[in-house]
Amino acid sequence: MDFATVYERSAPTILEIGFGMGEATAQIAALRPQDNFLCCEVHTPGVGALLKRIDEQSLPNIRILQHDAVQVIDHMLPLASLDGAHIFFPDPWHKTKHNKRRLIQPPLIAKLAARLKPGGYLHCATDWQPYAEQILEVLSAEPLLKNTAAPDAGGYAPKPDYRPLTKFENRGIKLGHGVWDLVFQRV
Questions:
Q1: How far apart, in whole angstroms, are the C-alpha atoms of residue 29 and residue 172?
Q2: Burial track 111-150 (b if 16+ CB lie within 10 A, e otherwise)
């Protein structure tokens, strides 16, 4: 995929996997007009909602792929082509027997890390502590990634200014859950 052609400009490109209804995506794209956002979502109402936001807010830096992110990574994204990737509040699959369905697994992270440019980043966030611990374990085990968190932070990063409070985060806070951000960099 030639991003300069897709966006009609050369700019850092960030992959967003699973944008839900697109509210946070639109806010981030508005805050970071200098970056391009390639957004994958399979949920049709979410795609429609983000398309509406793009039109209403005149956001020329977003492109949407209504397709499975794993297939996009496998077949459309060249190695070392992304400047960053966002995975915010993926489904935690709370039941232990369903944990294998979680998105953040070693095979996906290996593929995604290979698509990041050296110095590119992967930012994940969750409001489910057991999933945060699994994400930290999976990302820490990937040899192409290094944690950007301070050594005394337990592996978790402070919430970056560009990530708005999402409906999932607000829901988690109301339920008394913590929120964990993990930001790793491609070596």
A1: 24
A2: ebbbbbeeebbbbbbbbbeebbebbbebbeebebbebebe
Q: Order of strands across the sheet with 36-40?
A: 62-65, 36-40, 13-17, 82-88, 116-126, 180-186, 145-147
**What's the DSSP call for residue 51?**
H
* Gyration radius of the chain's alpha carbons: 16
The answer to whether 126 touches 90, Cβ cutoff 8 Å, is yes
Q: What is the pTM of this model?
A: 0.93
> How deeply is 93 buried, as exposed, middle or buried, from its count of CB atoms within 10 A (0-12, 13-18, 19+)?
middle
Domain boundaries, the chain: 3-186
Q: How far is CA 143 from the centre of its chain?
A: 19
pLDDT tens-digit readout, 34-93 = 999 999 999 999 999 999 999 999 999 999 999 999 999 999 999 999 999 999 999 876
Catalytic position from the list 91, 127, 152, 181: 91
Tokens representing 128 are: 């489910």
Catalytic residue list contains 91? yes
What is the CATH number that goes with domain 3-186? 3.40.50.150
